[in-house]
Amino acid sequence: MAIILCGGATRRPVKVTAAAVSLLLMCVWIEGDAQDPGERLYLFIHSMDDRLVMKESVRVSQKVTIVYNHSVEKVPVLEVYEVRGEGPLYMSELISRDPLLSYPGYERYHVLPWDGESEGPVPDDLDRSTKDWFVVRGLERAKVMPLAVGSDSVNHRILVGRKVIALGDIAEPGEIVKLIIRME
Question: For all residues of the chain together, what is the average pLDDT?
Fold first, then answer.
């Protein structure tokens, strides 16, 4: 315990514990590490030649969902990503009606029946009945994503909060776009 004198003859000494000092230092550290109020995080969608196609405001820990119909298996797929700051998105969930999706590396995860709940946004028009749906959680995969925009039947969409971005409306089928989080 330390005693701090608060200046002036009429003020009393204040007792300060080590825990209080630690708390004060932690608050100063957190405040010092805060994002500049003039800067915001955005999900940027760029063409392969780095032309800005679209940007959408996001925040740290926000979930972003990419929804599409698998071009081979013909089943709906939801890929849920987490914003962790500037850089890549981190995949946290994969939800689909096909438990044997042929994505490399998923075989080492437990595929569970989907309970209808997701960490990220789910399209309003999605049939959320849990029958025949499966989920893979805890993926923790960082991705700076080039994404080939699918045909109308693939129907690629990005959900940011309640906003739905239809990739077919901002890029041509077959065009490759990149998704990245940056501060501006």
Answer: 74
Written as one string, the DSSP assignment of 129-175 is --TT-EEEEEEEEEE-EEEE---TTT--EEEETTEEEEHHHHS-TT-
* Kind plus residue range of the DSSP H or E element containing 69: strand 63-69
Q: Whole-model pTM?
A: 0.70
The encoded tokens of residue 73 equal 């298996």
Q: With beta carbons less than 8 A apart as the criterion, state whether 86 and 41 touch.
A: yes
Judge whether 170 and 54 are in contact, CB under 8 Å.
yes
Taking the domains of the chain in order of start, what are their residue ranges?
Answer: 2-32, 41-183
Q: How much helix, strand and coil, in percent to the nearest 5, is found in the chain?
A: 10, 40, 45
CB count in 10 Å sphere of residue 166 = 14
For residue 25, what pLDDT band results from cuts at 50, 70 and 90? Answer: very low
